[in-house]
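Notes from the 1:1 (GR / supervisor)

We went over the backlog. Supervisor wanted to see one worked example end to end before approving the batch request, so GR pasted a single chain during the call. The sequence is below; no edits were made to it. Supervisor asked that the structure be written out right there so they could see what the output format looks like.
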Amino acid sequence: MERRVTKHPQQMNYTLRFPFRLPLGYEISSLAEPCEFKVDDLSWIFQYKSGYYVLKVTGLDSKAACRDYLQRLWSGFNWLLLKRGVAVKATLTFDKVTYASDPEAAARNLERTMNLPYKDPVDGLVNASMPSAYPSHKNIRFVGGGDPNVIVTTPLSDVHAFLKEGIDVRKDNPSINDKRLQTALELYSAYWYEHTNNARLLTLVLALESMMTASPRHEVVVELLEKWKAEVKMLRNRFEPDSTEFHALESLERELLFKKTDSLREQLRSLVLRSLEFLEHDKPYAIAERAVWVYEQRSILVHKGFLSQSVLTEATSTAKSIVELVLEARYRGFDGIG
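Structure output shown during the call:
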């Protein structure tokens, strides 16, 4: 009797390719040639090419495994940031490999149209600046447009005009002497260098907070808080200083003292409203309400860790325009005190 042998397909090996960049002035050493490490059952190969560092991980068993492993890799890059201060700039969105129906013809076409020297038949193409996942035995070519820098040109005439105007606005009181203004300007400057909208939004709100001035609440509220504070203090003194009751009441007393000033939200509303009134803006109340909305989105981002992309984009754009108005008001002489 003939015996049949069932052949099981060999498990396919996949490669994860992850390109990333470092900030100006930072580099990874010892990469004149590709460098390989063994990590568990995987192979990590680091290399530097065309302005990008590239980490290739081979030995994964599927595209899904590649996507999962990139998330784990990002934990490693975040730890690198925390421990060595190296901020990696990269996208975590995978590009889809475009596979060729005729690999030989594809290679010849690339040689003819893109001056890519023929080496072997080309199985597929993918964006060189984005993560990708593909079978390790496939010959994939990586195509990019070079270092994707956008250059915004400012005419020299504008530089001259705004430098002169800025000096004239401040006259004999340079802006650097206004510590609140200088801190806010430094934060606004940092906004332009942040890589993500999350960081940009938080930086812009910090710029606004640095110009906020605590103002007392209405005298009716202050009188009531003073009455409560006296009652809490009287009750606190009935307990031993090392008791939990004493510390709980002491904490409440401090909170009542804090409540004598407006909440951060109200301080922000007041700052924006009065700044725009100082500039004689035609919509101070509407923009002040938008500032409160921005602050609410900031709170959601901080406490929940996420905003939808559309809300994040809108909040960041709105915050930027508000910060610019408040900074201008302060620059022109508004001191933040009503």
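Supervisor's comment: The radius of gyration is 30 Å.
Batch request approved.
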